[in-house]
Amino acid sequence: MDEDLARSALDRIADLDLAEKVTFHVMGEPLLHPKFFDILQHARERGLPVGLTTNGALLKPETIRRIAESDLHQIDISLQSPDKESFHATRGTRIDFDTYRTRLLDLLAACAARPEPPIFKIRIMVTRFARKMRRDLGIPDFMGTRVALHRTVAEWGGLIYERLGLGADRQAAMSAKARKLGIYGWNVIEISPKVFIETYVLTDWGNAFAAERIFEAGHGYCFGMRDHFAILWTGDVVLCCVDFDGKTSVGNLNDAPLTEILRGPELERIMRGFRYAKLVHPHCRRCLGSSTRLGSWTKPALSILGLKVFKPFFYRHSKLFD
To answer: For the residues 54-67, what does the mean pLDDT come to?
Structure first.
C-alpha cells in the first residue's frame, strides 16, 4: 500500500472513531512493507489501538526489538503448522524451524517484559475439515484429531511457560487441562495472562480456490461489515478479511473518502440483505455456496444458526492457568 494512502486511511478512521482496533493483515505479510514501522508509528500517534498479524518468517533480533517497543495492542502469529514436519511440508526449507520457533518465543518474551504487554496469540489450523481444498493446495493433515490438538497445545504451552519462566508445576496443570479441549470450533486457550494459543478450523475459504462449479447460495449470514471490514493495498474497501482480492469492493479510497463509501447505497443494500439473511452480493452468494446443490442450502443454514444462535458452542475460551 502506498504510504500516503495508508496514513490518510488511518487518519480518517481515527477522526471518525470508527474502529476498536486496526490490524495490519489480510492475506499478506505486513513486515514486508518497507515503511511498516513508519505507518505503525503514525497509527499510534493518532491514538489507534493496533494489531499485527504476521507469519513470523521475517523476525530477526532488530525487528523483534522494534516490534516490542512499538506499544502494539495485539500480536497474532499465524503459525498454522505446529511442528517441524508440517512446517517444512507447508513452507519449504528456506526457514529453519528451530530458529523460527526460537525467534517467535524471543518476541513473546520481549513483549511480555513491557509494563503493559500486548495480547499475544499463536494461531494454529485444525485440518480435520476442508479435505478437498487441502488436497488441491497440498496442505497436509497435521492437526486432525483431538490427540494432535492436545499434544500441540501442551507442547507450545510448555515452551511458553519455559521461555517466560513460569514454573514446571503450572506447566503440568496446564497440560492436564489441555486434554479436555474439543477439536470442533474455535478454541481460544489462555496459557497465561494475555498469552493465548488459538486453534481455528481450516474451512473452504469462501470457495476462493475451488476449481469446480459452485452452486450459489441465496440466503445466509455473515459478520462482514458488521464485525469488521478490510482496506486492501489497492485502496479497495471490502466486506471482510476473507476477500483478499477485492471481489466485494464497495469503493476505493483513491476515488472517494471513506465516509462516502460507508454511506453508499450499494453497501446499504448489502447490509439490509444480511439483516434478513439474504445474500445480495454475487461473491457472498459464491462464498456461502457449495459444489453440491444440497450444500448450497445446508451451508447457508449453518451460517445463520452458527453465527446467530450457536456461536457460544463453537467459540470456546479456555483459561489454562490459576
So the answer is: 94
List phi, psi (to 5°) of 45: -65, -30
Mean pLDDT, rounded, for 223-252: 91
Question: Residues 35-41: what's their mean pLDDT?
Answer: 96
Gap between the Cα atoms of 132 and 254, Å rounded: 38
Please answer whether residues 122 and 197 qualify as being in contact, where contact means their C-beta atoms are separated by less than 8 angstroms: yes
pLDDT surpasses 90 at 45:
yes
Task: Find where cell 459452485 sits.
Answer: 214
Is the separation of the CB atoms in 197 and 191 below 8 Å? yes
The pairing of beta strand 237-238 with beta strand 230-231? antiparallel
Q: Are 248 and 287 in contact (CB under 8 A)?
A: no
Q: What does the pLDDT read at residue 193?
A: 86
Helix axes 168-178, 146-164, angle to 10 degrees: 160
* Alpha-carbon distances, residue 166 vs 23, 160, 162 (angstroms): 29, 8, 6
Place of cell 439490509: 272
Closest CA to 74 of 23, 135, 134: 23
CA distance 306 to 221: 9
CA distance 284 to 83: 35
Rounded to two decimals, the pTM is: 0.86
Where do the H-state alpha helices sit in the chain?
3-16, 36-45, 61-68, 84-91, 97-112, 131-137, 146-164, 168-178, 258-262, 265-275, 282-287, 295-308, 311-314
The number of angstroms, rounded, from the C-alpha of 184 to the middle of its chain's C-alpha atoms is: 17
Give Cα 218 to chain centroid, integer Å: 27
